[in-house]
Amino acid sequence: MIVTVTVNPAMDKTAEIDCLRPHALNRLAGVVSDVGGKGINVSKTIAALGRQSVACGFLAGQTGLSIGQTLQNWPGGGIRPDFLTVPGETRTNLKLVEPGGALTELNEQGPRLSTADLEALARKLEGYAAPGTLFVLAGSVGPGVPPELYRDLTLRLRQKGAKVFVDADGPLFARALEATPDIIKPNAFELGQYFGLDHIPAGEELIRLGRTLAGRGIGLVCISMGGEGACFVQGERVWRAPALPVTPRSSVGAGDAMVAAIACGVEEELPVEDCLRLAMAVSAGAVTTRGTRPPDRETVEQLLPQVQLMGPVC
Ligand SMILES: Nc1ncnc2c1ncn2[C@@H]1O[C@H](COP(=O)(O)OP(=O)(O)OP(=O)(O)O)[C@@H](O)[C@H]1O
Ligand SMILES: O=P(O)(O)OC[C@@]1(O)O[C@H](CO)[C@@H](O)[C@@H]1O
Hints:
By secondary structure, this protein is of the alpha/beta class. The chain has helices spanning 38-48, 61-72, 115-128, 149-159, 170-177, 188-194, 203-215, 254-267, 272-287, 297-303, and strands at 2-6, 10-16, 29-36, 53-59, 79-85, 91-97, 103-106, 134-138, 163-167, 183-184, 220-224, 230-234, 237-241, 310-313. Adenosine-5'-triphosphate binds at residues 187, 224-227, 229-230, 243-244, 246, 248, 251-256, 258, 280, 283-284, 287. 1-O-phosphono-beta-D-fructofuranose binds at residues 8, 10, 12, 36-38, 41, 93, 105, 107, 139-140, 252-253, 255-256, 292. It catalyses: beta-D-fructose 1-phosphate + ATP = beta-D-fructose 1,6-bisphosphate + ADP + H(+); D-tagatofuranose 6-phosphate + ATP = D-tagatofuranose 1,6-bisphosphate + ADP + H(+).
């Protein structure tokens, strides 16, 4: 069973804009709204791949209600929403896409959560935790939430035999690594930030950093590099894959699509290289859709044979 956790969901509004001008009036076209937040996007993609997940986290106010209903009635089923309701209003995030794909994201903070809310979530998740459960802890956590949240959840859930996949950034990511999650998916920027670099790592440096994390016991380190592709490290083995040549429409959620594909592959116990190929095809497919919509299975099937997975290098 896959359980996605979105502590800070969002209604994503994606708009097209000719050229973003700061400090000026900008007019938007082609606005689409999608239920989102990283864990929810992972659930959406898992459903698109024909599999099931439970989606947990917090929802608030009218926006939260609308997200909950949308997930409940997700076309084809595939998502079982099990959210806690909290006071306030779930955020709305604005994504501005310029021709050629340049992206500006304006993300709200989201509702404030109490210690009691977080404990209620931990207990709910513990109810699902067992060997065979894979938790995906993804995205920011909102104001007032200690950066130790993912670390503490990882420790509690792994104690019950579950696996944990973390996709986060900043202190939340750094603290989560203290609990040695089973799988992580930083992008290259987040990886550089974690290691205190003043630049975005690439090439041999990126591989060395990935190996450092794998050497600490993280089972699979997936490093995404946007249009440059991805690098994967498992133990001593390293794979690289260039991004597939797709026509980008919105890259928002491409990382979540990659997380979803790997989660599905792990749940299905696919050989690791099949998981990585699926990750490349599904994430490229996500780039071709509007907003944070997942790719359909046909698109993924078409992209899969084009994936060039290089490695493993030991
Ligand atoms: N322009 C692109 N063309 C083809 N594939 C892409 C492109 N951008 C992203 N991808 C695919 O999606 C994967 C994840 O992208 P990216 O590194 O941007 O994730 P991310 O930073 O976690 O994004 P997000 O947080 O919006 O989900 C890449 O490794 C690649 O496989
Ligand atoms: O503010 P966070 O939680 O870091 O990211 C939230 C978010 O940008 O991530 C998803 C894309 O990955 C969007 O659906 C959502 O708006």
